[in-house]
Design a protein that fits this description.
alpha/beta; Rossmann fold; six-stranded mixed beta sheet; four-stranded parallel beta sheet; 11 helices; 16% strand
């Protein structure tokens, strides 16, 4: 048994350690407390600003902690991050980590970035709340942690678990696509909605929006959704093949990959009305098949790979003590609508680009060709 004096020493040491940890946490939060990052401001892509005003002059290290880097969207998003960082000459280190859709891997990645004293960490938290503790550790260490594409409602505690977040308004996106679907189907039909990785906040937030719209339109029957596909075209095609075999009539699909279209083509079934996010392959499939599939109407919103740029700018603004009044909650507009007479919404198909190119991305055609051909 320890002596009374040793217990007193231990207790005092523990209290001191607790006070130091609390002071460290408070200091980390106070470090950015005077900077206005407009966390509740809504706006659109037209409100985006140039990064030069947020670069600062001191040498910085920035990182993108991705929860999973396994598809074209992640590859393009990584390129957007690296391209944006390259515009600041004082950013000396740009790091990318792939969590491989394993919570423990991404946690280890972020711990490593903390140990290496990065200044900004942008996070795509595929495994959601599993990342909060380590994000809070990074915040307590004085790092500007900015998750993006989190869904409308902040997960965890904004300002404590992380500095701020930027996201497309996923509830609004879900509503927008569902309203288009209702209008296109004349208020009546069977719809399937596909999502991404299990438990991801983006799919969950979109579901809030589309459920509200479909619930208000009793002529619409949601056969299944949201269905997990990991945003993997091959898995989405397999899932859709099973759905085609199960349901004799499918009038509408809300999906973010082209896998389901290939399932309809393989089954010899009419391609239904389609709502999702822009992708060159999708646009070209519409161009090649809509004449023989009159039910194949198409609407897409921007795939928002560029949102990672905004997250980086918010982090840099905080580190450099500069207010950033760009919106944090982004309303995505339609980028294509085959039912519209507006030339700006015409379906876009660029045969010079790879199928997995994203028309709304802010990197060059040449860069997309380069990264997508690897």
């Amino acid at each position: 048994m320890a002596s009374k004096s040793s217990l007193i020493v231990y207790t005092a040491a523990a209290a001191l350690a607790w006070q130091m940890a609390a002071a460290s946490s408070a200091a980390a939060q106070n470090k950015f407390s005077g900077v206005d990052l407009a966390p509740d401001k809504k706006g659109g892509i037209e409100d985006m600003q140039d990064i030069s005003k947020y670069c600062g002059t001191k040498d910085l290290k920035v990182a993108f902690s991705d929860g999973w880097g396994g598809n074209y969207w992640r590859q393009i998003t990584r390129a957007e991050f690296e391209d944006e960082a390259s515009k600041c000459p004082n950013i000396k280190v740009v790091r990318y980590t792939d969590g491989e859709f394993k919570a423990e891997k991404q946690i280890a990645d972020i711990k490593g970035l903390i140990a290496q004293k990065f200044d900004v960490i942008v996070v795509f938290a595929d495994t959601g709340v599993a990342q909060l503790k380590v994000m809070r550790e990074a915040t307590d260490a004085g790092i500007a942690v900015v998750p993006f594409t989190t869904g409308d409602a902040p997960f965890g505690k904004l300002g404590t678990d992380y500095l701020t977040r930027v996201t497309e308004t996923q509830i609004g996106l879900g509503k927008m696509l569902a309203e288009w679907m209702v209008k296109t189907l004349g208020g009546k039909g069977n719809v399937i909605v596909q999502g991404g990785t299990p438990g991801n906040p983006m799919t969950a937030s979109q579901a809030v929006g589309w459920k509200e719209v479909f619930d208000a339109n009793p002529g619409i029957t949601v056969l299944e959704g949201p269905v997990d596909t990991n945003w993997d075209p091959a898995l989405a095609q397999k899932v859709t093949a099973a759905e085609i075999a199960k349901y004799p009539q499918i009038d509408g699909m809300m999906a973010e990959t082209t896998g389901p279209i290939r399932a309809f083509l393989a089954a010899g079934r009419p391609i239904p009305a389609w709502a999702g996010q822009d992708l060159n392959e999708l646009s070209c499939l519409w161009q090649d098949n809509h004449a023989s599939n009159p039910t194949f109407k198409l609407a897409t919103a921007s795939a928002h790979t560029w949102l990672v740029r905004l997250a980086l700018r918010k982090g840099l603004a905080a580190v450099n003590g500069i207010d950033n009044d760009e919106p944090s909650l982004i309303d995505l507009p339609f980028s294509e609508d085959s039912t519209s007479s507006d030339p700006a919404l015409a379906v876009k198909c660029d045969k010079d680009l790879p199928p997995t190119a994203i028309p709304s991305a802010m990197i060059s055609k040449e860069k997309m060709k380069e990264i997508l051909s690897k």
